[in-house]
């Protein structure tokens, strides 16, 4: 239930992943979840960079090419 809350879930993942008194299974699950979160964020960042590099978006705005 705690992991469904938007910001608290990341805090609790770190607490449970690196806490010494946590359950071993919960600790491993939280570490895996943090790795997956990092992997997804890297994919999103690469997609955003690719979108910005290979699109018609320029610093002056969006350029439209007709034809």
Q: How are the SSEs ordered, and which strands pair?
A:
Elements: H1 8-18, H2 24-53, E1 57-58, E2 61-62
Antiparallel strand pairs: 1-2
Q: How does this model look, in words?
A:
A hairpin with a 2-residue loop joins strand 1 (57-58) and strand 2 (61-62). It is built from two helices and two strands. It is elongated and about 60 Å long. The protein has a two-stranded antiparallel ribbon. It is mostly helical and 67 residues long. The model has no long low-confidence stretch (mean pLDDT 84). 61% of the residues lie in helices and 6% in strands.
Q: Give the end-to-end Cα distance, rounded to a whole number of Å.
A: 53 Å
What is the spatial order of strands in the main beta sheet?
A: 1-2
Task: Enumerate how many helices there are, as a single number.
Answer: 2
Q: What are the low-pLDDT stretches, counting only 5+ consecutive residues below 50?
A: none
Major sheet: 2 strands, antiparallel
Class inferred from helices and paired strands: mainly alpha
> What fraction of residues sit in β-strands?
5-15%
Chain-averaged pLDDT = 84
Query: Topology as H/E string?
Result: HHEE
Quantity of strands, as a count: 2
Task: Name the shape in a single word.
Answer: elongated
Relative helix content: 55-70%
Radius of gyration: 19 Å
């Amino acid at each position: 239930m705690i992991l469904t809350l938007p910001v608290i879930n990341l805090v609790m993942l770190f607490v449970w992943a690196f806490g010494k008194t946590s359950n071993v299974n919960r600790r491993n699950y939280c570490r895996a979840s943090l790795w997956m979160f990092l992997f997804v964020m890297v994919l999103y960042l690469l997609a955003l960079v690719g979108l910005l590099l290979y699109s018609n978006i320029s610093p002056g705005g969006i350029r439209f090419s007709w034809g």
